[in-house]
Amino acid sequence: MEKLFKKYITKRPTVSADALVINEKRELLLTKRSISPYKGYWVLPGGHISYGETAEKALKREVFEETGFLVEILRLFGVYSSPKRDPRYHMISICYEARISDGSARPNKEVEKISFFNFRKLPKKIGFDHKNIINDYVKEKKYEKSKKRSKKSAR
Known about the structure:
Number of strands: 7
Largest sheet: 4 strands, mixed
Number of domains: 1
CATH architecture: Alpha-Beta Complex
CATH topology: Nucleoside Triphosphate Pyrophosphohydrolase
Number of helices: 3
Oligomer: single chain
Strand order of the largest sheet: 4-1-6-5
Helix content: 25-40%
CATH class: Alpha Beta
């Protein structure tokens, strides 16, 4: 029975929290990884949620550890659960939209570089499924803009 239980427990997905950090210029914060997987690729800041930690607390901790920025969470953006989104194991990502509340750019040992990007000029090498997350965010914002325009023209 214990063997069966251990097998069941070890086959569960791991959970992470990732951030779409947008600055006042409406640019996206990305970090360039200095470790595998996706060494040399740009990714959203974020990482594993520790046992006993909330997703929100993990997000704030991970963003600070990787970038030096303190963030305010604006909203839950989405959950990404494809078993193939991370090459190491099945990782579920809880993704939040956030903004910087304090701090200054300070990469850590996992991060080679920190930069803000215009959504029209994103780097080509984006790791994990973060390009999909970013594309979903851009689609949502375009939809919101077109909705606002159609309300104005209806007046």
